[in-house]
Every structure is written in structure tokens, then in C-alpha cells.
Write a structure and sequence with these properties.
single chain, mainly beta, eight-stranded mixed β-sheet, four-stranded antiparallel β-sheet, 0% helix, globular
Length: 129
């Protein structure tokens, strides 16, 4: 399985911005879909955004217009630019490498998440004043 390493999490005030990065251990051109999920106080991991090899993007409804996903295959890296952050964005954010592009309302929990491809270790984002 591909190894994924996230960076860029932390504490930010409401209305602020953060950028997450996720570096893949192999040539990302070989990865069909890269994306970000998040897990808050609930046990389920919900889709935040994903981007296909060809550049097609999917966003969760709660982040549309605020978050932007991009990928740089030359650097084997996917990014998530997060603007106008809200307290409800507080969660652990996980980088994901998958063979299919899920829908905007997709989520997983427990062992089912193993069917969604490879995961990073997660990075905490806290939005609070």
C-alpha cells in the first residue's frame, strides 16, 4: 500500500485559513484518486474533497466554496487549502489514496474504511477563538 504523510494541521481562529499537504510514497500519477476525509466527534470518516488523476474534483457540501483541493503529481503531493474556517471544521483530517472517486456524501467507519484505500496517520485541526 502507498504510504501517505500529512502536514499542516494546527490551531486556527474562526475565519482563518490553513493549508494541508500530503506526500505519497510512490509516483502519484499511479494513484487514481487522492483526497481528504475528516473525523470529528462522530466515529464516521466523511469525505471533505477528492481529486482524480485527471483533475476532476468532488467536495463535501459543508466545505464547498471554502476549501480547494489540488494535486502536484511532479511532487507526489495533494493539497487542501482551507479558507473561512469554522468551529465545526474541527476534526482529525486524513489523507486518502483510492482507486475510485467517491460521492460527496460518502463516508466510512471502522473496518469499512480499509475498503477506501490507503490512509495517512491523520492531522488535527482545531478551529477556536
Amino acid at each position: 500500500q502507498v504510504q501517505l504523510v500529512e502536514s499542516g494541521g494546527g490551531l486556527v481562529q474562526p475565519g482563518g485559513s490553513l493549508r494541508l499537504s500530503c506526500a505519497a510514497s510512490e509516483n502519484s500519477i499511479n494513484i487514481a484518486v487522492m483526497g481528504w476525509y475528516r473525523q470529528g466527534s462522530e466515529k464516521q470518516r466523511e469525505l471533505v474533497a477528492s481529486i482524480s488523476r485527471g483533475g476532476r474534483t468532488v467536495y463535501g457540501d459543508s466545505v464547498k466554496g471554502r476549501f480547494t483541493i489540488s494535486r502536484d503529481n511532479a511532487k507526489n503531493t495533494v493539497y487542501l487549502q482551507m479558507n473561512v474556517l469554522k468551529p465545526e471544521d474541527t476534526a482529525v483530517y486524513y489523507c486518502n489514496a483510492d482507486s475510485v472517486q467517491r460521492t460527496a456524501t460518502d463516508y466510512c467507519s471502522g473496518h469499512v474504511c480499509s475498503l477506501f484505500g490507503s490512509w495517512g496517520q491523520g492531522t488535527q485541526i482545531t478551529v477556536s477563538s
